[in-house]
Specification:
- The protein has a 4-stranded mixed β-sheet with strand order 1-2-3-4.
- Helix content is about 70%, strand content about 10%.
- The protein has one domain.
- The chain is α+β, with helices and mostly antiparallel strands.
- It is elongated.
- Helix 1 packs antiparallel against helix 2, helix 2 packs antiparallel against helix 4 and helix 4 packs antiparallel against helix 5.
Length: about 220
């Protein structure tokens, strides 16, 4: 039995990390939404210490749904695909050179680009909410806003509703770190794909050169 293809093995580990990251991003953002009655706490603005203007639902739904579909579902599919390829490579070392590469380079590049947007949305939205709280309350830490009674539509025509801010500071911080780590892994996968494409091209070129040499010199 031959040794497993190291690059395929590393890619499998990367996809497992992305699969896990999908949960670590989507669950914290979703929990904060639930604590606030389905309202988005990213980009929320404080009018008073207990009065919050929530932002549009897209600011939270986009990171959640993207993490579910691009990280969890796609990450799981790629984990299974690469894990099977690793298993096959122990019997056939040429498996890696036979796999499709360019479609996954393009797809992973697209996902990495959108992941940049998702990570920025979480980071900037989190920072805006915290900055709003600190400006209104003159407190030096957004963590002090955790587990506080909050109200929506304090000065608006809508009906006021009471919520609990919960552990939003910790949860958003976890989601933020996971999002940027996930982005780095997507970039690593794109680079890995490019390296694989270059290796495969050189391998095919080498085989073609050997074939041409054999035709030119029948005694070889």
């Amino acid at each position: 039995m031959a040794a497993a293809d190291i690059q395929l093995l590393v890619n499998t580990v990367f996809y497992i990390a992305i699969f896990v990251s999908g949960f670590v991003i989507s669950i914290p953002v979703g929990v904060v939404n639930i604590n606030n009655g389905g309202n988005c706490f990213l980009y929320a603005k404080y009018d008073k210490e207990e009065c919050v203007q929530y932002s549009g639902s897209l600011n939270c739904n986009f990171p959640i749904y993207f993490s579910v579909f691009a990280c969890i579902f796609y990450g799981l599919a790629q984990t299974c695909y690469n894990a099977y390829a690793v298993y096959k490579s122990t019997k056939d070392p040429t498996v890696g050179s036979q796999m499709w590469v360019m479609p996954f380079i393009l797809l992973n590049s697209l996902v990495a680009a959108v992941m940049t947007v998702v990570a920025c949305m979480i980071s900037v939205g989190f920072d805006n909410t915290c900055q709003s709280f600190e400006d209104i309350t003159k407190k030096d830490s957004c963590a002090l806003a955790e587990n506080k009674h909050v109200r929506s539509a304090c000065n608006g025509p809508e009906e006021e509703k009471d919520y609990d801010s919960g552990n939003f500071y910790k949860l958003f911080h976890v989601a933020e770190v996971a999002a940027w780590m996930c982005w780095l892994i997507w970039i690593a996968l794109v680079i890995s794909g490019i390296i694989r494409a270059v290796r495969n091209r050189r391998l095919r070129t080498g085989k073609a050169d050997k074939a041409n040499f054999a035709e030119a010199d029948p005694t070889a």
